[in-house]
Amino acid sequence: EVQLVESGGGLVKPGGSLRLSCAASGFTFSSYSMNWVRQAPGKGLEWVSSISSSSSYIYYADSVKGRFTISRDNAKNSLYLQMNSLRAEDTAVYYCARASLGCSGGSCYSDWGQGTLVTVSS
Amino acid sequence: SYVLTQPPSVSVAPGQTARITCGGNNIGSKSVHWYQQKPGQAPVLVVYDDSDRPSGIPERFSGSNSGNTATLTISRVEAGDEADYYCQVWDSSSDHPGVFGTGTKVTVL
């Protein structure tokens, strides 16, 4: 069974930093692209960042580029999101999502974690 | 950046058909995926590549995509289908290719 478990969320002051982790199990982690998707309270889904299986390709949303860094450790079956210079508008539930090999270009997200809440407030 | 527009809400009686649109410039040239999200839960993929269903998703969920509009159709709507629905594409021509639609709240009357 595929499992994705996020951790690292919490309350942080504006301008602060946080590192999210996503522990993966139940599949060959090194074969899949991985993604971070966030959802502000009461709002819709927002794609944040994607990383290919070997970390060769990395993409960011404009809203986080230059402040967030996605990375992965295939030996540890883990995905990370380093978040710096946090702003109030970064407050959201952050989901880790696995890209599916079954959809075109691996462009859909077949499995999701339960999310971790990040609150940016003074 | 690429924009996907959905109606904020759709209401439907049980047993009827709900249609949720997702508008985007020449979206027919892209693969569209759809997610269902119930309150307090993570999203679930219900349709991928315009019209394919993951295992375990009822046949009542179907999709189509042409021109500037993709559509998710839910037939014989049940109370349990009440949720938010999001379309999504991967805009491979962009530096920030992940795109979600604005989301549609489906209410079962």
In short, what is this structure?
With 122 residues, chain A is an all-beta fold.
Describe the overall structure:
The complex is a heterodimer of chains A (122) and B (109). Chain A has 122 residues and is mainly β. Chain A is 0% helix and 50% strand. Chain A is built from no helices and eleven strands. Chain A has strands at residues 3-7, 10-12, 18-25, 34-39, 45-51, 58-60, 68-73, 78-83, 92-99, 109-112, 116-120. In chain A, the strands form two sheets. In chain A, strands 2, 4, 5, 6, 9, 10 and 11 form a seven-stranded mixed beta sheet that branches. In chain A, a hairpin with a 6-residue loop joins strand 5 and strand 6 (58-60). Chain A is globular. With 109 residues, chain B is mostly beta strands. Chain B has no helices and nine strands. In chain B, strands 1, 3, 4, 7, 8 and 9 form a six-stranded mixed beta sheet that branches. Chain B is globular. The model of chain B has no long low-confidence stretch (mean pLDDT 96). Chains A and B meet through strand 5 and strand 10 of A and strand 3, strand 7 and strand 8 of B.
What does the largest sheet of chain A look like?
7 strands, mixed
The 3D shape of chain B can be described as globular
Number of strands of chain A: 11
Report the biggest beta sheet of chain B as strand number plus sense, adding barrel if it closes: 6 strands, mixed
Average pLDDT confidence of chain B is: 96
**Distance N terminus to C terminus of chain A?**
40 Å
Order of helices and strands of chain A: EEEEEEEEEEE
Unreliable stretches covering 5 or more consecutive residues of chain B: none
**Quaternary form:** heterodimer
Largest interface (CB within 8 Å) is between: A-B, 27 and 28 residues
- Percent of residues in beta strands of chain A: over 45%
Class by SSE composition of chain B: mainly beta
**Count of alpha/pi helices of chain A:** 0
Distance between the termini of chain B: 36 Å
Count of runs of 4 or more consecutive helical residues of chain B: 0
Radius of gyration of chain A: 14 Å
Task: Give the low-pLDDT segments of chain A.
Answer: none
Helical proportion of chain B?
A: under 10%
- Structural class assignment of chain A: mainly beta
- C-alpha geometry of chain A: globular
Strand elements of chain B, count? 9
